[in-house]
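Hi team,

As requested, here is the filled-out complex form for the S-adenosylmethionine run. I kept the field names the same as last time so the parser does not choke. Let me know if anything looks off before we queue the next batch.

— J.
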Amino acid sequence: MGKNRSRRRPEEGILSSHPERARGQLYGRRKGPRLRGAQAELLTQLLPALNLEPARARCPHACFAVPVNDVWLEVGFGAGEHLYALARNHTDVGLIGAEPFVNGVAKLLSKLKDDPLSQERIRIHMGDARDILAALPAASLGRVMILFPDPWPKARHHKRRFLQTAMLDAIASALREGGQLRFASDNPDYVAWTLERVLAHEAFRWPARRAEDWRSRPADWPQSRYEAKALCGPPSYFVFERR
Ligand SMILES: C[S@@+](CC[C@H](N)C(=O)[O-])C[C@H]1O[C@@H](n2cnc3c(N)ncnc32)[C@H](O)[C@@H]1O
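And here is what came back:
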């Protein structure tokens, strides 16, 4: 028994308690290479203070250590470059990040560890963003951001793509009027597939007027890791508005 315990990774206790693990609905990696000492320590020492269980998302403005004027959600923040830059640039906004990949969460914690002010306004759900969206009250968010989600290129895997029509319903409900859904991808097929669904959805409008509006990353949109290594082609950036 002692032997088994010593082989246990620090993140395993947290992961095994996630309801979606039991449901088996999440696709993609949860764990990468075994975490090094300092990162493993952050998971046990810093994450509990920033951790957001879905039930607490029922009162999103109350999740943070300081009062915030708006709350934004990033789905699948990867290593957290974009989420962390937003926290630095928007000091009146509370940010919720959902990411099931433990190594990505550890990378965000490494950025946050010496930044107590940003820690006050970032909350992390190390799991499925759908559990957070299901808990959020109507019209409670100013932005939902989904950057370079896994494109699942094979037709039989399209059902795994995040922005299904049912998910657009959930996002539309969580966003307040005038709120934004931001989406980016470097995969033209995935872009076309997503545009078709968002433009068919009555809750969203796409105010873009010219190609430059979606070919260039808006100034207040920090670069993410996947954007930096975009492999399929030039990225496209979409800002949809909640009607
Ligand atoms: C291709 S990576 C992009 C990461 C980051 N957004 C970027 O641009 O660098 C997609 C990320 O979405 C995460 N992801 C997949 N399904 C998710 C879900 N249901 N909820 C939250 N994150 C999810 C994956 O773990 C992965 O880190």
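Two things worth flagging: The chain has 13 helices and seven strands. Residues 26, 28, 75-78, 98-101, 104, 128-130, 147-150, 224-227 surround S-adenosylmethionine (CB under 6 Å).

Thanks,
J.
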